[in-house]
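Lab meeting minutes (informal)
Scribe: AK
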Amino acid sequence: MKKVLVALLLTTGLVFFNTGCKDRGDLDDIIKIIKKKKQNEKKYDCPTMKLNVGDKCKTRDGKIGKVDRNCNCTPIDAPKYDCPTLRANVGDKCVTRDRKVGKITKDCKCEAVDANKYDCPTLKANVGDKCKTRDGKEGKINKNCECETSTTSKYDCPTLQANVGDQCKTRDGKAGKITKDCKCEATTNTPTYDCPKLKANIGDKCKTATGAVGTIDKNCDCVTRGK
């Protein structure tokens, strides 16, 4: 009985083997179709990089980053720019493809600047350009064509680091005060005061009864900031 069963199994195996050999061409075709299907399933957000948005990547200088929506590898600890691809902010200086000096536009393009047209002709600079204050600190040109740093933004006249009415000295060494145009204007030899009793002008530094430092207001009172 065992011999009969073994014979039957061998016969069945040979039948399937012969059939498989005949249909080998069909089997190859099926394998090819499956492979193509798998390839089509591998759709990337960034085909060139073969990566998706948010995937880990390495920048050109070897830093670890993530793939952004523009298919750029942005370092995780990278500073935030208006134009991440250019690693620059709107108003920053740049060089166009034809080697002309320009600045970054709102569309994140480097647009050539007419050398004769400046936001601040006297400074030959544009709003947002880098600059240096008189005391050598780095800053940026503001809308008033003044070199402003993060620490000078609280002044009426950031470039001078002073407020309107503050005492100053003119170029020829005379005593004066800061005007609304942020210029040091010499006072007369017999000065007239906004507040004659105090012998002081509006905006001058003063001390309150408690000894706190303040400035003279329009009512000729010594007021500290924040009040």
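Next up, CB showed the second protein from the same session:
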Amino acid sequence: MCDRIINNFGLICFICWKQILAVNMDFIVNPKHRHYGGESKNFWVIDNGGFSDANLYSRIVESEVLITDLDESIAQSPARIIAQTHSLRKFPGTLEYWCWVAKYLFKYLGGDSNIESSAWKEYVSKFLRTPEERRSAGEYFTTDIVSKILYPGVRDFYCVLPESMKKSCVTRNIEEVALQFTRPLGINSVVAEAFYKSTIVELMIKAAPWRKRYLLIGDSSEDEEALDVLRSIKKKGFIDFVLSIWVCKSPDDANKEFDISIGRNYSGLVEIIKNRRSIESRL
């Protein structure tokens, strides 16, 4: 009886704490649960930088350069899918593959949770070395599969962005895979196997010093480092602004270092852009 009371008390405290966190979050778009053609979609937009929907809209459409990550930023992780479907592509070296799995499984169980980047880098060097292996990995992502694993609202988001905006994908994934996702979205360029994103971002700014307004979308520590570089360059006066958007699983995972946090659903951003354009058209 006492155990049940303690457990129930703990559950009540947890629920109350979650509600307190939700109240303290500045939602531009409150969490919504809707059905489109039988498909359930949850979306929300959290402000971390003092933006109203009008200010956020202006910053998005005024951006000259968009830099986005791929895995778990615009779609379910293709890298993880590649590793999980390894045997389906009939690569040689099955024992080597299972040794790779065991190595990083033991690291993870040993408490090292930040292993994705190093694990993927080693996977590429071991199993995606030849043009045939790379082509096979890319061909796995058919149009149907890409459509299924793209996050809801991503296509609509890229459709409502200005055509003049330069859109780049900077990813640790290989080019053959990244192109399967970026081409349908109208993303202009891909920087693949970018394990040092902050360096890539700095080089991109130096290569086009006339572009002054940046939009960064990401979900990883590498994207946080890229944001640090962008903000440092802004402080020096070389760019005018950087708008940063963090993509995460739930509002509890919102990143206060980024201006905006969204779920793995871009419909909230699309809603903001379409609503503001509708208002402007009536003025």
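CB comment: Residues 148 and 209 are 37 Å apart (CA to CA).
No objections, moving on.
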